[in-house]
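Protocol step 4 of 5: obtain the predicted structure for the target chain.
Materials: sequence only (see below). No template structures provided, no constraints applied. The aim of this step is simply to have a reference model before the mutagenesis design in step 5. Sequence pasted as it appears in the construct record:
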Amino acid sequence: MPLKVALMNNKYNRFDLFEKAGIETVEGHARTTEEMIDLLRDADGALVNTRPDTSREVMETCTKLKVVSRMGVGVDSIDLAAATELGVLACNVPGVNTAEVADHAVAMLLAMTRRLYETITATRQGQWSDNPPLMNEFQQSVRRIGGHTVGIVGFGNIGRAFAMRIRGFGPAQIIAYDPFVPQSSADLYGVRLVSLEELARTSDYISIHSSATSQNVHLFNAGLFAQMKSTAILVNCSRGPLIDQKALLTALQEGQIESAAIDVTEIEPIEHDNPLLKVPNLVITPHLAGFSPTFLDECPRKQAENVINVLTGKRPHGLANPEVIKTLAVMRASDPGRWEGIPDFSIALEL
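Step 4 output (structure tokens):
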């Protein structure tokens, strides 16, 4: 039987690449685990997105599934432990939108420090000429980045790209929190690693660039907001669950921090009646930080190539659970199960 790949919840899928590789495709949309299982039940590989989660239940039920490739750089919607145990490769596309997310974070910080949304809106309403007191308030409240402390939470590829960009604005110092990065790596970017508590206490501006895990849900909570400067500005272009939205609402309303700009929320899309949408010192964009025409061309291609490469014995662009190679070695030596008849690519991975 020919190999089959399920293409889910992505209008940018590259059918031509699968056709060229001689792999059958099936396309569909899934909002629930049950719908996802129905789509992936007979698939050897799958292109998945952020929702619904690629859970243990999905991978256990879909017994032919060998590889899942997620759009973008994140893999937080894939149960990596289950994938590794079951012998399923969890792939992503590292670096595919590093520039876009770093650019967006800088843009959001500039929008807040220079109060672009409020001033553009007021000018369009004719208040430049009609409301001198408001113009005076704007003039006294816009801020500079130079001479201030910028904190970065998560110092991976995107955090580092943000640091390189923000350095051009002349901050007094750039500090970062990332327990998985050594100071020697941060030194290459002129960044000093600190504890999360020190970063919260001393930063004038904070930009979050951390992946989401079960350990860092609500990393920014009421306790951490209480430690931040009342003049602090928070930017989040990473993952919504990193911020406790109720705590953020309180912090903004009660002046614990000055303002925030977020591109992600705990539930997406954000509900139309969510009180965060009415907070004047918060700007929200609809999870578009990682997008650009370049991304929309490169990401679907590499996402498809991940699955094609794995199923034909070649190296994927990104493998989030490299420990799975050990699982596959055991499976191939005993009962190959879902991997029967598929070329061994472990040498290509050079692990």
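Step 4 remarks: The chain has a mean pLDDT of 95. The first strand starts at residue 4 and ends at 8.
Proceed to step 5.
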